[in-house]
Each structure stands twice: as C-alpha cells, then as structure tokens.
Amino acid sequence: MTLTAPDASALHPDGDDVAELQARFDAIIEADQRIEPRDWMPEAYRKTLIRQISQHAHSEIIGMQPEGNWISRAPSLKRKAILMAKVQDEAGHGLYLYSAAQTLGISRDEMTEQLITSRARYSSIFNYPTPTWADMGAIGWLVDGAAICNQVPLCRASYGPYGRAMVRICKEESFHQRQGFEILLELSQGTPEQHEMAQDAVNRWYWPSLMMFGPPDDESPNSAQSMAWKIKRFSNDELRQRFVGMLVPQAEVLGLTLPDPNLRWNEETGQWDMSEIDWTEFHEVLAGRGPANAQRIQHRRDAHEQGAWVREAAAAYAEKQAARERQAA
Amino acid sequence: MNAQLNDAELAESAKATEAAPATTRRDAASIAALHDAEAADVHVSVDDVDLAAELTGADASTTASPDVAEYAMRLGDDALILSQRLGWWISRAPELEEDMALANIALDLLGHARSLLHYAGTATGRSEDDLAYWRDEHEFRCAWLFEQPNGDFAHTIARGLIAAIYMQELYTALSASTDASLAAIAAKSVKEVAYHRDHAVQWTLRLAGGTEESRARMLVALTDTWPYIDELFRDDELHERLGDVAPLPSSLRAGFDEVWSAVLAEAEIAERDYVNPKVGHSSGGGRFGNHSTHLGPILAEMQVLARRHPGATW
Ligand SMILES: [Fe+2]
Ligand SMILES: [Fe+2]
Question: In 3D, which of B242, B210, B199 has the Cα closest to residue B98?
Fold first, then answer.
C-alpha cells in the first residue's frame, strides 16, 4: 500500500507542509508500509538510500571480477556454464540496483563516475584474490551466503524499489550459495589435493565473510538511524550470529573445518561463542589498502573507457534513427 | 507485520543447499521491465535453466557412428571455442547490458557445444569433458573463424555476425537431419542462434552508422575477419559420406550470402569498403586439425586446471 501520489506543490513544499509530509512519512514507516519513488521523503533518507543502494550495486559489479577470473579455466564444461551464469547474474543484480537508485534521482553515469574515480565504496570482500578454483566454492558458500543473510531482511526495506530488487536478487543468491556448496562438496570428497584446496579456501574466506556484516553493534555509526527508518532491520551482530548458525551444520556435511577453535554454541547466552574478529584487518581493507582495490577499479575503468566509442556510436545511431523517423512522420 | 526476523525467510535461504539447483539467465530488457511496475508489486519470475536438461539429445541409448561423431565434433568445437572467446568479455564489455548479452550468447554456445561433444563422445566412450579438456590442438576440429581474437568490440561483432548467420543456415538445414540426435540439437540451437544473429546485426548497424570512429573500426574488423568466411563452406569427403545426415557446407553458402549482403547493404557498406583484394581467403584447415596460431594458447588456458588433476571430478 502506498500514499496517493502527492500533487506538484507537495514535491516542493515549504513551511508547515513539511511538517505534515514528515508526519505522513513517519506514519508509513511506522505502519511498515512502503515508501515509493513519488512519495515525499526526508532528504537524509534519500541520501542514505542512494549511498546504500549504489554501494550495493557497485559491489555486485566489482564482484564479477574475482569469479570472472576463473571462467576461462573452469575445470569442467558444466562448472564453466554455472560460473558464467553466476557472474552474469551479478551483472544483472548491479543493473537492477542501479535502476532502483535511479528512482531516487541519481543517474547511472554519476554512479559509474563515482565508482571509477574511487569516490564510491563497494564491499571490500571483493578485494581478496582468488588464487584457486576452490575460491569459486568458498565465495559462493560464504560470500553469497553472508549476502543472503544480510539481504533477506532487506526484502522488507521500507523503500519499495529497493525491497523489490532484493526479493529478486535473494532468489538468485541462494542458487549461488548452493552452487558454491556443491563445488566445495565435490572438492572435499575428491582427491586429497582437492580436499586440501577446499579447506584452504574456507580458511581464507571464513573471517572476511564474517566481516561482511560490518563492525560490532556498539561501533556501527549508521546503523541506528537505518534501523529506525526500517531500511535495515537487524543489527550487524544479530545477522552474524544467524550466519554462523547456518554454517556450522553445513560445514559438517562438507567435511570441512571452520577456522575458529573457539566456535561453540553457548546454552546460557543462546549465542555462538567465537574468537574475536581481527578488526584491524577489516579497517585496512575498508580503507582500500593493498593492491587489489586499485586493480579492481582499474579493471572497471578500463572497460568503461575502452567502451566509450561503442556507447557513443550507439547514441549517435539512435539519434540518427530518431531524426529519420521524425522526417518520415 | 512485525519487525521480527522472519525465520521462514531466513530458513529458506539457509536451505539453499537443499533447493533445486539451477542457473539463471535473463537479459537487460526483462530487468528494465521489472522497474516499469512502479508501485505495483513486482511479479518475480526467474528463468531457470536446468543444466542437465541442456544436453539436448542426450539419450544414453544413442551412439554416434564414427562419421557422425567427427561431424558433431566439428560443430561442437566451433561453439566451444567461440564461447571460450566470448567469456572474456564478461566484466569487460562497453556497458553492463553487453556484459549480459555476450554472456548469454557464450552460455548458449556452451550449451550447444556440450550437447554436440556429448554426442560425439558416444562413438568412443568419451565424455564431453574428455573431449574438451583432454584432446590436443591437432585433435580439435574448429574452423579458424572461431579462434580469432576478440580484438576490439567491432572485431567481436564482425566475427559474431559471420558465425551467427552461418550457424543459423546450418542449424536450420540440420534440423531436417536423418540423425535424430543431430536434428534435435539443431532444432533447439537454431532458436538461440537467431537471437545471436539479431544481436550482431543490430550492433553492425549501430557501429557502421554511428560515429566516424565506429564506422572506421567496423570496416577494419570486417576486413580482418572476412577471409575466414570461406572455410566454413568447404565440402570434404566426410560430408559426402554423411549423405542426408548433414547438409553440404557449400549448399549453405547462398543463404549466407543473401543475409550477409542484406545486412551490409543496410549498413551502407560495399564490398570494396572491406575486401582487401591483396588478401585472399584463409587456407584454414581447422576441420583437419591444422589451426591458426591462436588455438594453442586458448586451449592451454582452458585446459590447465583439469589437466593438473587427472582423473579428478569437479
Ligand atoms: Fe549478487
Ligand atoms: Fe551472488
């Protein structure tokens, strides 16, 4: 359910109108209904969403690279097909999220520009390298898995286009997670060398995937407002707990070990006890240190710049066609 | 509705390991369409493609004769190597929509390759992967066109245009094959190749009719790629032996030329604009295992991991 579309004056309100609009906005949020693009919204809400959705879109696009790296070398034709389809899905997610952000009044060109000039953030998990085939399994199982835990609650985010985008995306992410799990299972039950490859990849991706949920609740500056606006519905730590709870039985089926000797269920607290996360590494990666960040951006910039003449050609051609049609009419 | 973590939803995602596996494919248009439904609840539909079912004609009881297997291998290798080439573009295309379109085409071709190689392998008890990963360069049967580098986007389009027009003529004719497996594979493939052809035609028109630079690049690409057309239409003894199982390549030429000329005419490109009379047709001996210098590195990359682990499954 949504508000009826506001008239033009409501879009550029002044004085008392704002208070009334704010009240209507608050009521929608309070009632767990959706804000739609044509509804009035506080500027800070709009900005927060643009930042979050575009960062999410950038992450999908940058996320194509670590896995794209293995398309040409996938060890069977079936795996090649699945991987290619997966990376294509990520492009689709990016595209879909960019268009959700566009409904908030930012253009795709602006967002692309922010990305390739390093002014925008993306999920730093994609700055880790993918040295072995087992990384395709670990990324699917752990990174897509963490993404699902983060994103399923976003399906009910208060902003309509974002919530709907997430419904579609979550569906596909769960295929990705399943495919990653399958890759690891096959490796784990394969030759000793394959098993070792799988364990090594899980060792490398486990902690970074836990960091994907962000800093602990007491150090997460933007979380409170986002939760009040119902953009975000659960705290970082809550989601991290859920994720670990999901991994433990799956790791058992895989025959692989999660690299945390202190990981155990605590009956008293009803929580998973785990080792302290090394947040210094998180902040390092977040700050974009290390060569991978620059490489990922460079890759994107190259594609963008080398494709410029193609986009220009398409635009010029479309213009000529339109002119021809106008003449004919 | 309350703000509790929806356990059912989370459980569903956690259950990902039990859900039916599938790869998903879609195009940019369907994504744009999703956003058209502004405030209405969007109907989510994911086009699931079950990979096992993609092995068209994969009927265990059918075994290809040695000649049919050789023929299927030629077609399968064409599709496989072109798919391998196109896969490079994913994350490097001029725009996101093209990342998706080129990936779609690469995926279709890989599907064709898998069906054809699976069938070819039945003659000698080999799997699609045995054929893809464990044959050496001289055992591959692809034509030189498919081995050509991606070049700039115009080269990829020129190569794709020739490939798709050829494949559409080929699969249309092959749908009437007396070999039921080949006929089934061709009938499925021809629909997808029609989309590839449309994609290549649209881009040929855009590049030729876009800017001065894009037109110049398109002409260079045609000049560089045109010599590899002839090899596709050469008959040899295999075709004579196959009879009604497969069309003679030479019989497909008229259909190819008709479409090719029509596209170039619409793009306002004359033969003298791209044919360099000093450069003849390529001698391309791909059907007999004599390849361009490009195939070796393609195979080295494609096969490296599989060959590191003989006997392993993935
Ligand atoms: Fe994604
Ligand atoms: Fe994913």
Answer: B199
- Cα torsion through A204, A205, A209, A214, rounded to 10: 30
Q: Residue A45 and residue A22: Cα distance in Å, rounded?
A: 11
> How is residue A325 written in tokens?
């049609």
Residues of A in contact with B117 (CB under 8 A): 77
Q: What CA–CA distance (Å, rounded) separates A320 from A250?
A: 57
Residues of B in contact with A314 (CB under 8 A): 206, 210
Per the document, the length of chain B is 314
Interface contact A85-B87, CB threshold 8 A:
no
Q: How far apart are the first and last CA of chain A?
A: 42
Structurally, at CATH architecture level, domain B51-308 sits in: Up-down Bundle (1.20)
Cα A41 to Cα A266: distance, rounded to the nearest angstrom: 43
* H-state helical runs in chain B: 7-14, 28-36, 66-87, 96-121, 128-134, 153-174, 180-209, 212-225, 237-242, 253-266, 271-274, 295-308
So what's the ipTM on this one? 0.90
For chain B, which residues make up each domain, given as ranges? 51-308
- Count of other CB atoms within 10 angstroms of residue B35: 17
Asked if residues A130 and A64 have their Cβ atoms less than 8 Å apart, the reply is no
**Which residue of B6, B21, B113 is in closest CB contact with A178?**
B21
Which burial class, exposed, middle or buried, applies to A57 when counting CB atoms under 10 A from its CB (0-12, 13-18, 19+)? buried
Alpha carbon A234 to its chain's center? 16
Q: Helix (H, G, I), strand (E, B), or coil: what is residue B4?
A: coil
- Chain A, 119-138: which have a CB under 8 Å from a chain B CB? 133
Model pLDDT for residues B250-285, shown as the tens digit of each residue: 999 999 999 999 999 999 999 999 998 888 888 889
Does the distance separating the beta carbons of B12 and A174 come in below 8 Å? yes
**How would you classify residue B243: left for phi > 0, otherwise alpha for psi between -120 and 50, otherwise beta?**
left
Q: List CB contacts of A146: < 8 A, sequence separation 6 or more.
A: A209, A210, A212, A213, A243
pLDDT 10s digits, B156-208: 999 999 999 999 999 999 999 999 999 999 999 999 999 999 999 999 999 99
- On whether the CB atoms of residues B120 and B72 are closer than 8 A, the answer is yes
Q: For residue A259, what are the contacts with CB-CB under 8 A and spacing of at least 6? A: A202, A203, A206, A207
Q: Give the residue among A60, A63, A53 at the shortest CA–CA distance from A157.
A: A53
Give the number of other CB atoms < 10 A from CB of residue A327: 7
CA B7 to chain centre: 43
